[in-house]
Amino acid sequence: MSNLTVKDIVLFNLELGHYRREFEIMVKEYLEDEEYDGLSCDECSCFVDDLMLCSDGFENCEAGYKQPCYENCGCGGYHIGREKPNEK
Q1: Is residue 46 classed as helix, strand or coil in its secondary structure?
Q2: In sequence order, which residues have a C-beta less than 8 Å from that of residue 20 and are 6 or more positions away?
């Protein structure tokens, strides 16, 4: 399953007519199986335990890893990024 992307999973399930909650469950299982920490896109990120808070557009998200907030953000928390922290 590792060659699938989050977008692949979402689009496939849209074709099957699955509901949003079913998407969340399938995406969460995928992220956990592949050892990702959450999803991110240009405008937001979410963690595995709190997925897809945005109202739409989640099909553009990419799987990623928990990373400290970058300096200019100012939130003081964490974000989801593409690189594993130990691979920098």
Answers
A1: strand
A2: 52
